[in-house]
Amino acid sequence: MNASVAPNTSVADMPDRSLLMDRSISGRRAVALPASDVPLAEMPDAAVLREDGDLQLPEVSQLDVIRYFTLLSRLNFSIDTNFYPLGSCTMKYNPKLNDQMASLGGFANIHPLQDDDSVQGALELMYELQRWLGEATGLPGVGLAPLAGAQGEYAGLLIARAALDARGEGDRKVALIPDSAHGTNPASAAMAGLDVVVVKTDEHGNVDVEDLRQKADENTCVFMLTIPSTLGLFEPNIVEINQIVHDAGGVVYADGANLNALLGLVKLGDVGVDICHSNLHKTFSTPHGGGGPGAGPVMVTEELASFLPEPIVAKNENGYRLSRPDDSIGKINGFHGSFSILVRAYTYMQALGGDGLRAVSENAVINANYIQALLRDRYDLAVDRICMHETVLSGKRQADRGVPALNIAKRLLDYGIHAPTMYFPLIVPEALMVEPTETESKETLDRFVAVMRAIDDEIDDDPETVLHAPHTLPNTRLDEATAARRPVLRWQSSS
Amino acid sequence: MSADENSTHPFIPNTSSERAEMMSTIGVDVFDSLITDIPDQHRNPPLRLPDAASELEVATRMQALAALNHDAGSRPSFLGAGAYRHFIPSTVGAILQRGEFVTSYTPYQPEAAQGVLQSGFEFQSAVAQIFDMEVANAGMYDGPTAFAEAGLMAARVSRRNRILILDTVDQRLLEVADAYTRHQQVEIEVVSQQRALSGDIPDDAACIAFQSPNFMGQIEDVQALTDTAHAAGALSVMHTYPIALGMFKPPGAYGVDIATAEGQPLGVPLTFGGAYVGLFTSKQRFIRQLPGRIIGRTTDTKGRTGYTLTLQTREQHIRRERATSNICTSTQLIGLMVSVYCATMGPRGLREVAELSYHKAHYLADAIDTLPNWRVANDGSSAVFFNEFPVVCPIPSNEVNRRLAEVGIIGGLPVVLPSDAGGNGGGPPNGMLFCVTEMNSRQDIDRLVGALADVGSEVSA
């Protein structure tokens, strides 16, 4: 099969994109509600009531609603329509069965404060998911409460602080964080009251062991290691590194953003990690939803399990129970976690099974290395060695010819391919971080490679086209500076 | 599953021969050569998980688990307390089927994400409008985390470090606020309404934070609390229930500075407590201190209107340890449900839902008050309530719920009542917080009253 490498050329026609309020006609409605079947109660004093006509929401027909949001959906890239080689974000296929199972009435219509006896199916699901995530990471204490990866990180840091406090070392206030880390790591550390000390990356893309050795000391609370790193590399010295941190009395926290590269290949608990989180919307295929909801369960060693956030699901002779671990860091959100996301992840894990999950990681690694092997003659590699699930390219050669990474990323959009993660990790100039995931076929990867080579050609032949991309989307480049300088954040009647 | 060597898993397309070809392009013979960075002794550990299952097998197992739960969609429920069963119009589910929304990424590439961005702008517009506040962000994880971050934001804005929280708020709000502020340079102090209104506000108070309707469903004196806060140079922070704003005066009308809520009641099913969306609004002048994502309107190089993430220098991917919050993945898709809900309900629909809930709740309260041995808990104040109210049960409230479950009704939430409101001062709680919405028919309410009457009459007998 020879997939077309040609870019789209037709400019997306510009439908009427006016906002709902600008389509509003007084008196229209999109749904009717029943009349009251009870006698009307006396209304409270007018002083506490909303004034008539004060609430301005759109008045539109039901067809207006459906047509408007369907139109918006078509102004968007998505996994169902496009390839997203988006490094570190793991945009893999989201199996439809996951969504279907999450919408079953027995899951969608249960109230979080119902008696435990009336939600045994939900609790069994959570209990099993706890066990499976514990098995996959080698860290048997599992808390499903965190609502996203960053909340999982924060929970992990609260656990580290509480555990150190319990052994009288609560004054350890330093988080050691590699310079290649995601921004959430230092942001979460700051929320946890920790001072960030940056650890360098060496010329091979590994943690600079000597730098770590110097910085790990009696002030170290936690070392936050993304594994594989944001350079797409497994840390070969991981056992030694974790030993250094432990010898200094600190806790090892692994950012599980890239756990999809490790399933069945290595368990974090086996190599000395104490705490990690997993973004279920990455590794376990739950949809990104345009920016959430996610779920960020936190996994810890047996010794730290008593500090997990509330609630966890325990099992006793009366069945499954929501419970509070003895030394719990407490509640970090309203109820029990992103249950609708947990249902999806559990559905996915059943569909794959142990061998299937291992195949996920194997294929993710093969796919990334395949792209790396076929692009390395045209694009520099951040680090020239075998990668795990993603490869970090550098657009240095292209930037020298006048086209920065940003424009390469934008030009990809014209070929119907989402931009890679760019300018990250911060330590790589002109970074283009490419993660194909295991759900993409060889043909899709071949076309991506061909397109990346074609854009590299365009930089010589027709640089203006690349510099002003995208040309075929609902909008050309947007003025982000003005958006920030003079913020318009909601509909206004003059618009 | 099939033993055919070249057959693939439905989610993993490459066949073994393609993998072999790709590995040869990479220049390795066996997969293990790609993972030599993983220490030998720890490589390829056993994964003790079940075998792969077919779609049919998985669906069967999941349906069996779902069937073990008492589905509040198929029986009357009077449980609220932070998660509410409201009518969800068919449009919400229909739009939620759009894979273009469900499977899209965070809109960091605005040209390829105008759908997510414009619908997020609709979300911000609708939320700001319902709250009558100047700005709303694109959503938080849930209501309690929004409330906690409001306290932190008030501390940043006021450069003060004491967060006063009224003791009538949901305990969950306090617990999450505690977890979010534990290692910050701020102090949480729980205060009574009397104390808050006395004007005895310390100099270092960043805000007075309260919930209205409060945990017990009552409308607080928002004007007095807000004026007291402002007189002390502090901010007024209000956590609310968005459906109530269909009929009750919104926070903006009182001069509240930051207002938050659980967004779930606006079109999101209960789903055992998540995923939900937190609503977060404030005055315009605080926008550079807002947590979370914000979508702004702008123009493209051809002068056409478009939307983009904005004020990103507040966020973790740029500002790292100095960010206003650590939020990355948030709750965009749940926000979309809220947008579709608001568009569908319109101003009239939202008011009708609020008023139906109000009238039906009062109908139940009046009926309970006439039952022997039952009464609505009353601390003597004449406070107005919306659609939740506490009652004093003649037997422990857990016992009441067990009895109701036997007749297929999900009862209210067992709560401990203060002694001046009919609490029993220790022992198993005898209070129950009932919630009524437009989903409860008169017939359901009458059935509940009948069941409560049975419980009450046994006590007299």
Give a written overview of the molecule.
- The complex is a heterodimer of chains A (495) and B (461).
- Chain A is α/β, with parallel strands linked by helices and 495 residues long.
- Chain A contains 14 helices and 13 strands.
- In chain A, a hairpin with an 8-residue loop joins strand 12 and strand 13.
- In chain A, helix 5 packs across helix 6.
- The mean pLDDT of chain A is 95.
- With 461 residues, chain B is of the alpha/beta class.
- Chain B is 37% helix and 13% strand.
- Chain B is built from 14 helices and 13 strands.
- Chain B has helices at residues 16-26, 55-67, 90-96, 99-102, 114-131, 143-158, 171-181, 193-197, 222-231, 251-254, 316-319, 332-369, 397-406, 442-460, and strands spanning 135-136, 162-166, 187-191, 205-211, 235-240, 258-262, 278-282, 295-299, 305-309, 375-376, 388-392, 413-415, 431-435.
- In chain B, the strands form three sheets. Chain B has a seven-stranded mixed sheet, with helices on both faces.
- At the A-B interface, helix 1, helix 2, helix 3, helix 4 and helix 5 of A face helix 1, helix 2, helix 3, helix 4 and helix 5 of B.
Task: Give the helix/strand layout.
The complex is a heterodimer of chains A (495) and B (461).
Chain A: H1 62-73, H2 96-102, H3 105-108, H4 120-137, E1 141-143, H5 149-166, E2 174-178, H6 184-191, E3 195-199, H7 209-215, E4 220-226, H8 238-247, E5 251-255, E6 275-277, E7 298-300, E8 312-316, E9 319-323, H9 339-375, E10 380-381, E11 391-394, H10 396-400, H11 405-414, E12 421-422, E13 431-434, H12 442-461, H13 463-467, H14 480-485
Chain B: H1 16-26, H2 55-67, H3 90-96, H4 99-102, H5 114-131, E1 135-136, H6 143-158, E2 162-166, H7 171-181, E3 187-191, H8 193-197, E4 205-211, H9 222-231, E5 235-240, H10 251-254, E6 258-262, E7 278-282, E8 295-299, E9 305-309, H11 316-319, H12 332-369, E10 375-376, E11 388-392, H13 397-406, E12 413-415, E13 431-435, H14 442-460
Parallel strand pairs in B: 2-3, 2-4, 4-5, 5-6
Antiparallel strand pairs in B: 1-7, 6-7, 8-9, 10-11, 11-13, 12-13
